Amino acid sequence: MESSGGNASRIRREIEALKDEKARIEQKILELENQLREEVSLAPQQQENESVCDGCCPSLSAADANLAHGLTAGSIYRYSRHLLLPSFGVQAQSNLLKSSILVVGAGGLGSPALLYLAASGVGRLGIVDHDVVELNNMHRQVIHTETYIGQPKVKSAAAACQSINSTIQIVEHEQALRTSNALEIMSQYDIVVDATDNAPSRYMISDCCVVLGKPLVSGAALGLEGQLTVYNYKGGPCYRCLFPMPPPATACQRCSDSGVLGVVPGIIGCLQALEAIKIASDVGEPLSGQMLLFDALSARIRSVKIRGRSPQCEVCGENTTFNQQRFKDFDYEKFTQSPLSTSPQKLKLLTPESRITSKEYKERVVSGEPHVLVDVRPEHHYKIVSLPKSLNIPLTSLEARVPEISSALKGQEEGGGSGANLYVICRRGNDSQRAVECLQNMGFDLAKDIVGGLESWANDVDPNFPMY
Amino acid sequence: MMEVKTKEDNLPAATTVGKDGSSIQIKVLFFAKARDLTGLTELSVEVPSGSTAQDCLNKLVSKFPNLDEIRHCIVLALNEEYTTDSAVVKDKDELAIIPPISGG
Lengths: 468, 104
Description:
The complex is a heterodimer. Chain A is of the alpha/beta class.
């Protein structure tokens, strides 16, 4: 066990080091390729101009005539299918090439949004994210490849965008968006795309857009549903006009807890790119004053007309005092009672006497101690993976199923003497504490939870235990 | 999530008669967290004629007490248009309960 653990970590370190080196080399290749492309594309144009005009009739050059609308020969060819669209054409493409768009979040929504925005020729594309690419991102965050696991998402996304379109400017903001940097970052762009995954970020980005007067393309996806709205566009409502009160923390589900079908954020992210392109190119009617609801189960898309700007809105209303300073001072985590970062909360409900570590639990199993292990995760989690001989009683049905625990304990006592212990486990060690508190209130004084749940079992006891 | 299904309301008719003695049927659509809390995507509800959107919500909360936690953070749409609590619902109206999603 000991030596194989040591080997594994050495191999992991070596893989990490090689990946770092690989990413550095790939970045260098990309830079050189871009450099080469620029050299090559400039050279023949110069030659052509010289040979056709021969220094006597420069005004008749075809290249010069085309440049009147600002599109280069390369752009005309690259975006030709856009230019062929009568309702899009040269003017819209030229608007797009002059525009700048910031995408906050390079995850499930940001991945397709960024790919399409880069491909369509947004002149300057900014990416904000502070996470690294993980294996459990790959099923939906299609901008990243396995090569980039462990690398910053911003780096991975920027490389992918640049490899699709080397002619646009990509700006990497490898940091978490906070009230301290949001004004400075967002003010550099015409349009903001909210592709984040949590409630405090959504309020913060919307408020910042109001203060800076930027249109906001806001998308969200969870489970099998998606939502899309354009806020703060030409006098339209902001996020707070619709939702002046934040949802209770218990209602703020995350993909990492509730799950999401990969293609659902993919669809919403594509629609976000579409809305951002419409605004940037000044074509069509953006989805302002409306909310698009996507329901994957029934394959239905509904568009619901939402309220206009609220005169009472605390941020964009008539008598608002909200400004840049108030924005900087606002505590969005406190307002929504949930964290801005994606790291899951670590609850501390129980005293140390009511808890044991996963290593201690392992020792007790090995020593043959009579005990019952209750796993309080939902049934569909339990089906993914579980510890041997554990009893699955989801937290939501704990009180009703207490007799099952009593009889399991009795069974253990008959088999191996008196005083069987009761342990509770969950995924990360939060629900197990809630369960132990509940069990102790019902008379199971010796109930203990396993600190850090199955995650700590996988980290500290069994590195081969599958995690999700 | 996958067990979500539609269901007919079966509350007794005595509670659903209006001042003039008549009642109406509306269709309630649940989205996002409201789906999780009720286990339904839609529900047919009988209310006294003259009822407001708020009356309908009250009735839903009494049927699904969990809905109370998100009650103050939803968009309410009547026939796919924004509505307020005081709007009067009519027979065959469609009332959508839309809590915000924040995932991505």
